[in-house]
Amino acid sequence: xxxxxxxxxxxxxxxxxxxxxxxxxxxxxxxxxxxxxxxxxxxxxxxxxxxxxxxxxxxxxxxxxxxxxxxxxxxxxxxxxxxxxxxxxxxxxxxxxxxxxxxxxxxxxxxxxxxxxxxxxxxxxxxxxxxxxxxxxxxxxxxxxxxxxxxxxxxxxxxxxxxxxxxxxxxxxxxxxxxxxxxxxxxxxxxxxxxxxxxxxxxxxxxxxxxxxxxxxxxxxxxxxxxxxxxxxxxxxxxxxxxxxxxxxxxxxxxxxxxxxxxxxxxxxxxxxxxxxxxxxxxxxxxxxxxxxxxxxxxxxxxxxxxxxxxxxxxxxxxxxxxxxxxxxxxxxxxxxxxxxxxxxxxxxxxxxxxxxxxxxxxxxxxxxxxxxxxxxxxxxxx
Length: 383
Prior knowledge:
This protein is mainly beta. It has two helices and 37 strands.
């Protein structure tokens, strides 16, 4: 019996050594999976990855939709030569490329086109939304091409809904969408949308190519940065209105605002007729909250033409407080900056400083239809 106990002790000791050795063993090193030389499709390669791996995709056209639900990098050979084409086939979930991982993701170097509709008839090139704060999605150096259908009001280039991740959307091009090129809906994580090129798309209806909205919840306090982008407002049907960049607070009428917006160093071109540059809008039913607080709009250039319908550089619509509009350049517009009442609310404590108005009919316009005695309190340049 003693011998048996001794053998048992040895077995237990060996098992402990094995367990400890396993515990101390280094984690598996990240690897690169090659498409199509190792895996026929991008989806096959993604399915074979583990956290930290890279899927390297060679030049070519890939007729598939992607679901990226792992913390990995998916890298194309360049947007000019690496194409993901959904061939407009219907999708079970929103997004021809769908990113929902709970870890860091990089998606770069592709043209994304031919997105099909989801069951709700929504068409999205790239969809991204993480349930986890503290992770980063980097979407860079891609081209997103919409359906080209001017009557498709649910055709979006990039869409995020309810994301908690830090979103870095840089060096991308978005064109030919029937609706918003970039749509952010209640994205509570920080966003950096910089160094991109997008246009108004092809819509026959009013559309704002960049549209960031909040409603029915807490204010979004994380940094919302829109910088160094080039936006062409001259595409599509020339009649419907549109803003190049819009932040819509309390979109549904139920409060939900923003407290940390920076819109800087963007260039908006072809703001013709009823086209406009940058807009803040508060749609709260009760205009005492739910707007944008402390927004900085700086060093942007908005250029357009003077026409029958007003072209505008910057418009503040409804109740917002502490907006700073500084060092912007407005070229050939009907109105440089407009502060306007909405549902009984006015922009308050706005600062306009060192802006340049070149060929602008009215530098600063106050439109307050709630009373003959304006409630706007602003420090501004003389019109």
